[in-house]
Recover the amino acids of this structure.
């Protein structure tokens, strides 16, 4: 199973066996920390909306705590739409409200 997690600075699935994990993070500190703690995973510094992922590249797109009251609603909608366009088997997101 392949998983990409947006805001992957505190990874949920990175150490599960049989999961190909990629974490996307805007914060370089989190990326550097995760590379040290979870070297077997792929860590991408960047904006999920700007990365060239392929359709069906991931089985699961995970947004853990990305959406919160401070986020612009248009950006939130853009992120969800991009996730749908990538056609994963599952999209899971949690809200920090």
């Amino acid at each position: 199973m392949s998983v990409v997690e947006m805001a992957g600075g505190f990874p949920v699935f990175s150490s599960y066996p049989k999961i190909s994990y990629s974490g996307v993070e805007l914060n370089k500190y989190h990326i550097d920390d995760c590379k040290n703690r979870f070297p077997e995973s792929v860590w991408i510094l960047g904006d999920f909306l700007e990365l060239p992922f392929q359709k069906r590249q991931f089985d699961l797109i995970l947004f853990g705590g990305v959406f919160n009251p401070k986020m612009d609603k248009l950006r939130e909608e853009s992120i969800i739409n991009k996730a749908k366009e990538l056609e994963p088997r599952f999209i899971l997101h949690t809200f920090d409200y």
